[in-house]
Design goal:
It is a single chain. The chain has 17 helices and 16 strands. By secondary structure, it is of the alpha/beta class. About 40% of the residues are buried.
């Protein structure tokens, strides 16, 4: 609603081209070094995704970099294959030698770059820029020209540089926010000003030092920029670049621009690049993060189950994601019922309440309850003995390196309270020995089989214990329990089996 009200104030282009620089700027992420084969795999995925241009690398940087760019060019992808080059003959020749059809050439223009990095006058920089663009054009390349650190360059001088590059034949003018210092309103103002001064299409390359790369890119598009540089997962120098998945989904769904990206592939390529680079995405990463479509709070889950749009701005399927109902201390009854229905598990109200209370209790302890955890807990409750003839009233366990494992157990058997202490080879064995000792006066019940499994990884994983017990008359029963404490899970499983056997008598 509000977006539509402000759209008339924007100078939106008819469409926006996506220039992906994952293989160049993204590889400059500290700690990331891609092999040629890895770059080729990513390039193929980027092409399938539908990006317009792939910046394959900086050929003059090393023989290996030149080889990777050349091999990506040889793939004959639908996307333009671009090589980066300074406005130097040898750099441009390296791109030409790779067979690329597109070059991204640059030179610094800000006072800082002029004085400290390049040690060149403003006039010398313009001469170098013109040479580089003209030389690339003469060799048949499509040319994109960047004034490095444009957002800290005096506006009049920036216009002068861009006009010179435009006159030299540049096909695209790129505006880099090299150290991410812009804010959206200032970026919009800058691009509007440049649109009034130059005729060539404008592109933007935003860094994320203040977390504004995507916002600044969108602000530039609102002012008429027709191309955005981006990387998968926002990889790049320092805090990274504008995240491609965020830019694309905003352009499509917030601005209604016809971007040629297969959005259903976004999660797939995000996960692939994350694995290849070793840079893990935070779970709350927009669009592609593990929690991007995860819901725990009861109010939210109820709304999503009734109408997904209540708490989801886009469908997870649109980006190749899946909706997850997460169980924890904020879980509501609706979420839990939905999960049980998903698993095909039917419970009566008492069983459901028991499960619900267990989920809440684990959530309060900081336990994240997985789907596997929930299924195990539900199965345990469904299989629990209906009559509780023997009930645990208390247990204390002592164990250690130089201490004989000892368990003191208090049971209510019928109307009588009984207590005993027993030792064992470990705390579980001691606890089971104590229980069998107390119950032996009522029935001679033996443990035939004991199995334990950690449902999920981690030291706080739930333990699922399954036992088979029998009595002297040949009656057999199984017991099961799922708890975060192995000893308690074992005790509950054993008591469950004992109660089932006693119920038969």
């Amino acid at each position: 609603m509000y977006i539509e009200e402000v759209k008339p104030e924007m100078k939106l282009p008819e469409t926006v081209r996506i220039f992906d620089t994952t293989l160049r700027d993204g590889e400059q992420t500290p700690g990331v070094a891609l092999t040629v084969d890895e770059k080729i795999c990513i390039a193929r995925k980027l092409d399938s995704l539908g990006v317009d241009t792939i910046e394959a690398g900086f050929p003059a940087a090393s023989p290996g970099e030149m080889d990777s760019v050349r091999r990506i060019v040889d793939l004959d992808l639908d996307a333009n294959t671009c090589g980066l080059a300074r406005v130097l003959r040898e750099d441009i020749d390296a791109v030409i030698d790779c067979g690329a059809d597109y070059i991204h050439t640059f030179i610094g223009t800000s006072p800082l770059h002029r004085k400290y990095k390049l040690k060149m006058s403003p006039e010398e920089i313009i001469d170098r820029a013109v040479f580089g663009v003209e030389y690339a054009v003469e060799h048949g390349l499509s040319v994109e020209f960047s004034a490095e650190d444009a957002t800290r360059t005096e506006f009049d001088y920036l216009v002068e540089v861009y006009r010179a590059a435009e006159d030299a034949g540049a096909d695209m003018i790129n505006v880099p926010d090299t150290v991410g210092v812009m804010i959206p309103r200032a970026m919009n103002h800058l691009i509007r000003g440049l649109r009034d001064e130059i005729k060539t299409q404008i592109s933007v390359h935003c860094h994320n030092d203040f977390g504004l790369a995507v916002a600044n890119s969108l602000a530039a598009v609102e002012a008429g920029a027709s191309q955005v540089h981006a990387t998968i997962n926002g990889l790049g120098e320092r805090a990274g670049n504008a995240a491609l998945e965020e830019v694309v989904m905003a352009l499509i769904t917030r601005y209604d621009l016809p971007i040629t990206i297969k959005t259903t592939e976004l999660v797939n390529i995000s996960e692939f690049v994350s694995k290849i680079t070793g840079v893990r995405m935070p779970p709350n990463k927009a669009i592609v993060g593990e929690n991007a479509f995860a819901h725990e709070a009861g109010i939210h889950v109820h709304g999503v189950l009734e109408k997904a749009e209540t708490y989801e701005p886009i469908t997870p399927e649109m980006v190749g994601h899946k909706r997850r109902i997460v169980l924890g201390k904020h879980t509501g009854a609706n979420a839990l019922r939905s999960k049980l229905q998903e698993y095909g598990i039917d419970m009566n109200e008492d069983q459901f309440c028991t499960l619900y209370e267990q989920v809440k209790r684990l959530g309060d302890k900081g336990k994240r309850i997985t789907d596997a955890d929930l299924r195990a807990m539900a199965v345990t409750i469904l299989g629990k003995a209906t009559r509780e003839i023997v009930k645990l009233e208390g247990i204390a366990v002592m164990t250690g390196e130089s201490v004989m494992p000892t368990a003191t157990v208090k049971l209510r058997i019928g109307d009588e309270i009984k207590t005993t202490s027993m030792t064992g080879v470990g705390p579980v064995d001691a606890a089971i020995n104590a229980i069998q000792s107390l119950v032996s006066e009522t029935a001679d019940i033996e443990l035939d089989e004991y199995n334990i499994e950690a449902i999920t990884g981690g030291t706080n994983a739930l333990a699922e214990v399954f036992v088979v017990m029998s009595d002297a008359e040949g009656n057999k029963a199984t017991g099961r329990s799922t708890r975060e404490d192995i000893v308690m899970a074992s005790v509950e499983a054993v008591l469950d089996a004992i109660n089932k056997i006693l119920s038969l008598k």
